[in-house]
Write a structure and sequence with these properties.
By secondary structure, the chain is mainly α. It is 68% helix and 0% strand. The chain has 21 helices and no strands. About 7% of the residues have low confidence.
Length: 410
């Protein structure tokens, strides 16, 4: 029974954590208190369920336990007459969808987390933790900061919410466009984190984040159809999702994009991606997600032409880096430059990146090894070994190790 109880708690945490936090936060108007209460409820479940059995509705049990915890804290603080406390006695959920500018409870809470009173660099991470239930360590990897720095950033954000008395009121329709960028960034982060899990790791908390991210991206375009970057993000995710089935072979081995069989790509999803990208282009509001989607669209041309247009991809990366010089974009630019035949420019791009920023960034070392190999330059093996040491996914590590074994001697 103990194992069954633990599995049930893990399943509910995986499937319902974000929804439960969202409902509690709406009713309590305090994100930190909602998370604390839900954590206590999960701890109580692990103590109680092995003895009394797993309830018929674990989600309802956890919600009731979290509410009892919040009410206990409220009574202790003599706040039982406060409306934010008495609302907990109500069995209903958030206000009816038709009265809201954002009808989906999870997406609505994401827009709340994009409140302008919060620092820009914490809005998307806060969404990933409070709404999607990810740990600070996983979020930190998506934003290329240390887990300690990310945890501190999130704690400060929640303290800011509490100290400033920021209410979790639904944003009005006119406020959505101003908060959209952070929401799109969080959705992209969710997909990126979810993409790390595959057939060998089906039970991790991020296991379903890709589907969730695509759903949210579609919903955002429905809510904000005049925002080109929303369409750009949807196009980007759909292009990557179209190739998802080809990313690993039947034995679970990683297959890099260049080695994938284009016939295995999902033509329907790729077509939807192209439609979304054209919709974005017609709005004439350029942005980074549209450029990244255009790069993925160029890769998708191989399904028709049999060739990858590397010179065009390098030009798209140059445009992306000129306006949005993220670390990932600059690493991608170097690979495209090398594949287009300009290894010297590729190495210059990589050498120009700050050493402190790339020392623990595995994608940089993978790219460096590849560029050095194309250039016939020394240092390939050291870069590969650094990449292997930094890569957490065992399937990617095995692929890198196999590549190192197959590489010609310098």
């Amino acid at each position: 029974m103990t194992d069954a109880a633990a599995r049930a708690a893990e399943r509910v945490a995986r499937e319902c954590y974000g929804r439960l936090v969202a409902l509690l936060a709406w009713q309590w108007r305090d994100l930190a208190a909602a998370e604390d209460a839900l954590s206590e409820a999960f701890a109580a479940a692990l103590r109680t369920w092995p003895v009394q059995g797993v309830p018929d509705s674990p989600q309802a049990w956890l919600m009731a336990a979290a509410k009892r915890r919040l009410l206990h804290e409220a009574r202790h603080a003599r706040l039982t007459q406060d409306p934010t406390v008495t609302v907990l006695f109500e069995a209903g959920e958030a206000p009816a969808a038709e009265t809201q500018a954002v009808p989906d409870a999870r997406l609505r809470l994401m827009f709340v987390c994009a409140h302008p009173a919060l620092a820009e660099n914490v809005r998307a991470p806060l969404m990933l933790q409070a709404v999607l239930g990810l740990e600070a360590q996983a979020i930190a990897s998506a934003f290329l900061v240390s887990p300690a720095a990310m945890a501190q950033r999130l704690v400060r954000a929640k303290a800011r919410i509490r100290e400033a008395g920021l209410r979790f009121d639904p944003p009005e329709a006119r406020e959505l466009s101003g908060r959209l960028a952070a929401v799109l960034e969080a959705i992209y982060g969710a997909y990126t984190l979810g993409r790390r899990d595959g057939p060998a790791q089906p039970d991790t908390p991020a296991g379903d984040l890709r589907e969730e991210a695509v759903f949210l991206a579609r919903l955002v375009t429905a809510l904000q159809p005049d925002q080109a970057e929303a369409w750009g993000l949807l196009a980007l995710l759909l292009h990557v999702e179209a190739r998802r089935a080809a990313q690993f072979d039947a034995a679970g081995r990683f297959v890099p994009l260049a080695a994938q069989d284009p016939a295995a790509w999902d033509a329907d999803l790729a077509g939807q991606a192209e439609q979304a990208l054209w919709t974005a282009a017609r709005l004439r509001q350029p942005g980074p997600f549209q450029l990244e989607a255009a790069i993925q669209s160029a890769h998708a041309q191989r399904r028709v032409t049999g060739q990858t247009p590397w010179p065009g991809i390098a030009q798209l990366y140059a445009l992306l880096v000129a306006h949005h010089p993220s670390l990932g974009a600059r690493v991608g630019q170097a690979v495209a430059q090398a594949e287009a035949g300009d290894s010297r420019a590729a190495l210059a791009t990589l050498d120009g990146l700050p050493a402190a920023a790339v020392q623990a960034y595995p994608a940089y070392w993978v790219a460096r090894a590849h560029v050095l190999q194309l250039a016939g330059a020394p240092g390939q093996e050291a870069a590969r070994q650094r990449a292997i040491g930094l890569t957490e996914d065992p399937r990617l590590r095995e692929f890198l190790a196999a590549s190192a074994r197959a590489a010609p001697a310098p």
